[in-house]
Design a protein that fits this description.
With 681 residues, the chain is α/β, with parallel strands linked by helices. Helix content is 34%, strand content 26%. A seven-stranded parallel beta sheet has the order 8-9-7-10-11-6-12, sandwiched between helices. A six-stranded parallel beta sheet has the order 13-23-22-14-21-20, sandwiched between helices. Strands 2-1-4-3-5 form a five-stranded antiparallel beta sheet. The relative contact order is 0.09. About 2% of the residues have low confidence.
C-alpha cells in the first residue's frame, strides 16, 4: 500500500492544494492518475507530486486512486520544478505542471486507449551515435577567434567542475552563435542535452539552419506557433533521447530533458521571456532551477545585457565574459535626431518627418528597404475634444482610452474595456480629435505618402496569426517589401542587409509611462533597431531631443547610459537594488476587496521594515468567473522592499496567500515581484 499526494486537474484557486490518496499497486512521483474528487462520481485527472510509505497521521475515509495512466509520466525534476514555481511565482500548482505537458497529452481522455511512444524512463543517456552525426566539415568553418576561444575554455571548464551561470556580453550577435555551436558540440560529446532559447520565432530560422547543418538529425524545434500534434511529436523525440538539441522560444524551457548539460538563453534581456499571462515567471530563474537539478551550465547571451544581469555579474552571482570584437565598427549607421516640435512649426501634421520621408523616398529609388518602428498599438493614444479640451477616458479606470481605427473602437489599456467610437464630445458635442498617434496612424501615413511602395505592418496582433506573420517575415527577408512598419518585434530576426533607412517614431510615449524600466527599454529599442545594419540612416523622431536616454542611444554610448541608469536606481532602491511587489486582489465587491487589502497591508508591515507604499489602484471590472463565483472589483497594491528581503518575502507571502484564500471565499489575491507592468491587470 502506497500513499500519494496529488494535484487535481481543476482550474480553481480554491482547490489549489495537495490531496492524499492511497493505492495498492505501483505508483511513482510524476505519474498521471485518475481519481474520484469531490462529491461527484466523475473521475478527474491528477498528478502525483509525492509518494509515501506511511502517513504521519491518519486520514479518515481516504480515497483510492482509480487507475494510473501508462502513456506518460512527468519526470521527478519536472514535478519538483513545478512545485518550486508555484511558491516562487505565487501561482497555482496546476498552471506550473501544465507547462511541462504538451496539450494533446494533458487533454487525453482518462479512459481512452493511448498508444503513445513516449518514454517514461527518466534515466535516459544520449546514444553515443549522436557524436557520429556531427558534420565536422561545417564545424570547421565555424573556427573561433582567440577571444571566443578564451570564452569557450572558461565555460567548458564548468562542464567538469562546479557549474556556473555565465553572462556573455558580445558586441556582435554572430560571435555568440559561433560560440554556442562549439559549446553544444562539446556538450554532446559528453553525452548531454542542450536547450537554446531565443525570444521570438523569427530568430529560430537562422539557428535551426546553422545547427542542422552541423548536428543533422539531432535538432528539435519548439515554439508556440506549432500545431498541437507537431509539438507532441517533438516532445516525444526529446523525451526518448532521440533529439539532443532543443531550440525554441519560451516554451522550450520546459522541454522533457533527462540529461541536461547546457542551458543557453540568447538575448537574455528581452521582455518576451516574461509571459503576460498566468503563470507569470522569469525564464532565467526557471532555467537556473532546472540546470541545478542536472548539474548543468547556464549561459546568458546578449549584445546589451540587462542592468539586473550586469548587477548580478558584479555581485559574483554570474561569471562575466565579454567579446569585444575589435573589428566591430561602432559607426556602421548614420544617426539623426529630428525635433518634432520643429516639424509642427513648419506645418507638417503627419507622423513622418521631412527627413524620414526623403530618406525613405531615396531608399525606394535605390531598390533598398526601410523599417519604421512604432512601439505602440492602436491609432491614437488619446482622443481630445477640439473645443473644450476634454480627454476621452475609461469610466472605470479614469485613464485615456486608446483609439483603434481599424476596428473603430476605444479600448482601455488597464482593464481592457472597449466601447464604440463616437466622434462627438460627451460634454459639448464638438468634434473629437485623435492625438499622440500610434502604429495604425503611422502606417496610414506611410501608405498615403508612398502609394506605389510595397508596404506591410507587423505587431503583436499580426504576430498571433502565425501564417500572416510568417508570410510577412519571408517576404521582407526576400526583399519583396519596400517599407515595413512595426513594433519592436521587427528588431528581432529580420534580415537588415538591404535596409538603408530605420525610422523610430513615437519614442516619447515609452518614456512617459510610469515604469522604472522604461529608460532601459527605450535605449535597448534604439540599440536593437540599429544592430547588424551596414550603412543605414537611423532617424529618431522625438519631442524630447535633449533627453539623456535618447542622446546616449543616439551617441551609441552604452557605458554612460548604464552608469547613469544604475546610479539612479541605486539611489531610489529600484531593482536590482530593491524589489517592487504588486498584490492584486480580485473580489466580489469593494467591501470584500478592502478587507483583504487591509489584511495584506497588516501582514506586510508587521513582517518587514522600510516598506514604501507606491500606491493603491482601485478598479471595477467585468464579471470574472471562478467556479461558481463572480468577481467584480479589483485592487492593485504596489509597494517596495529592500532586495535583502526578497527570499524571506517569497517564503512568508506564499504561505500567507494560501491562508488568505482559505479565509476569504469571495476573493482571490495574486502576488508578483518586479512586475513587468506595474499597474495593469
Amino acid at each position: 500500500m502506497s500513499f500519494v499526494d496529488v494535484v487535481i486537474d481543476n482550474k480553481s484557486d480554491f482547490t489549489d492544494a495537495f490531496y492524499t490518496y492511497k493505492y495498492d499497486g505501483s505508483v511513482h512521483k510524476g505519474d498521471i492518475v485518475n481519481v474520484s474528487f469531490g462529491r461527484g462520481k466523475k473521475l478527474k485527472t491528477a498528478f502525483v507530486v509525492d509518494v509515501m510509505e506511511k502517513l504521519e497521521k491518519d486520514i479518515p475515509s481516504i480515497k483510492q486512486i482509480d487507475s494510473v495512466r501508462k502513456d506518460y509520466r512527468l519526470s521527478k525534476e519536472a514535478i519538483d520544478t513545478a512545485v518550486w514555481m508555484k511558491k516562487r511565482y505565487f501561482t497555482r500548482y496546476l498552471d506550473c505542471i501544465s507547462l511541462f505537458l504538451p496539450k494533446l497529452i494533458k487533454e487525453k481522455k482518462i479512459d481512452g486507449d493511448v498508444n503513445a511512444k513516449i518514454n517514461i524512463n527518466s534515466d535516459i543517456n544520449i546514444n553515443l551515435n549522436a557524436i557520429k552525426q556531427i558534420n565536422d566539415e561545417f564545424l570547421k568553418q565555424k573556427s573561433l577567434t582567440q577571444e571566443q576561444e578564451n570564452a569557450f575554455e572558461n565555460i567548458k571548464s564548468s562542464f567538469d567542475n562546479e557549474k556556473e551561470i555565465f553572462l556573455l556580453d558580445a558586441k556582435v550577435s554572430r560571435d555568440k552563435l559561433e560560440l554556442y555551436i562549439h559549446l553544444v558540440k562539446e556538450n554532446i560529446c559528453r553525452g548531454k542535452q542542450s536547450i537554446i532559447l531565443v525570444p521570438e520565432m523569427t530568430m529560430i530560422d537562422q539557428l535551426e539552419r546553422e545547427f542542422k547543418q552541423i548536428f543533422i538529425e539531432q535538432v528539435a524545434i519548439l515554439h508556440s506557433g506549432m500545431g498541437v500534434r507537431a509539438r507532441r511529436k517533438v516532445w516525444e523525440e526529446i523525451d526518448s533521447g532521440e533529439k539532443n538539441i532543443i531550440i525554441g522560444t519560451r516554451i522550450a524551457a520546459f522541454a522533457p530533458v533527462h540529461n541536461l548539460g547546457l542551458f543557453i538563453i540568447d538575448d537574455e534581456q528581452d521582455d518576451s521571456y516574461y509571459p503576460e499571462q498566468t503563470p507569470k515567471y522569469d525564464v532565467v530563474e526557471v532555467a537556473t532551477k532546472r540546470a541545478s537539478y542536472y548539474n548543468a551550465t547556464v549561459l546568458l547571451g546578449s549584445t546589451l545585457p540587462s542592468i539586473q544581469s550586469l548587477y548580478r555579474a558584479k555581485s559574483g552571482i554570474y561569471k562575466y565574459l565579454q567579446l569585444e570584437n575589435q573589428q566591430y565598427n561602432q559607426d556602421n549607421s548614420i544617426r539623426h535626431i529630428v525635433d518634432m516640435t520643429d516639424e509642427i512649426k513648419n506645418g507638417n501634421r503627419t507622423t513622418i518627418s521631412k527627413m524620414l520621408y526623403e530618406k525613405i523616398a531615396q531608399s525606394i529609388v535605390e531598390g533598398r528597404q526601410s523599417v519604421v518602428i512604432v512601439n505602440s498599438l492602436g491609432y491614437a493614444r488619446t482622443l481630445i475634444c477640439s473645443a473644450c479640451g476634454k480627454v476621452k477616458k475609461c469610466s472605470k479606470c479614469d485613464v485615456p482610452l486608446k483609439y483603434y481605427k481599424a476596428k473603430d473602437i476605444l479600448k482601455c489599456s488597464i482593464c481592457g474595456e472597449t466601447e464604440e467610437f463616437v466622434d462627438e464630445c460627451d460634454d459639448c458635442g464638438a468634434a473629437i480629435i485623435p492625438s499622440n498617434f500610434a502604429i495604425e496612424a503611422v502606417y496610414e501615413d506611410i501608405k498615403r505618402l508612398f502609394p506605389q511602395a510595397k508596404t506591410a505592418i507587423m505587431h503583436s496582433q499580426v504576430d498571433s496569426d502565425l501564417k500572416e506573420y510568417s508570410n510577412i517575415y519571408k517576404a521582407f527577408n526576400k526583399g519583396d517589401i519596400d517599407i515595413l512598419v512595426g513594433t519592436q518585434v521587427v528588431t528581432k530576426g529580420f534580415n537588415k542587409d538591404n535596409v538603408s533607412v530605420i525610422g523610430i517614431v513615437g519614442i516619447d510615449a515609452m518614456l512617459n509611462v510610469p515604469d522604472y524600466r522604461n529608460n532601459e527599454r527605450v535605449f535597448r529599442l534604439i540599440a536593437k533597431a540599429t544592430e547588424d545594419v551596414n550603412d543605414a540612416d537611423v532617424i529618431i523622431q522625438t519631442f524630447l531631443p535633449s533627453n539623456t536616454v535618447i542622446l546616449d542611444a543616439y551617441n551609441n554610448d552604452r557605458e554612460s547610459f548604464l552608469a547613469e541608469e544604475s546610479d539612479v536606481r541605486k539611489k531610489l532602491d529600484y531593482p536590482p537594488y530593491g524589489i517592487f511587489v504588486k498584490v492584486r486582489i480580485v473580489a466580489s465587491d469593494s467591501d470584500y476587496a478592502t478587507k483583504m487589502l487591509r489584511q495584506w497591508k497588516t501582514f506586510i508591515k508587521s513582517n518587514f521594515v522600510d516598506v514604501q507604499d507606491i500606491g493603491v489602484y482601485a478598479l471595477n471590472i467585468n464579471s470574472k468567473q471562478s467556479g461558481s463565483r463572480e468577481f467584480n472589483f479589483k485592487y492593485n497594491y504596489v509597494f517596495k522592499l529592500k532586495e535583502e528581503y526578497k527570499h524571506r518575502f517569497i517564503s512568508l507571502a506564499s504561505n500567507y496567500k494560501d491562508s488568505v484564500r482559505e479565509q476569504y471565499s469571495e476573493g482571490i489575491s495574486f502576488v508578483e515581484i518586479n512586475p513587468r507592468d506595474m499597474w495593469r491587470k
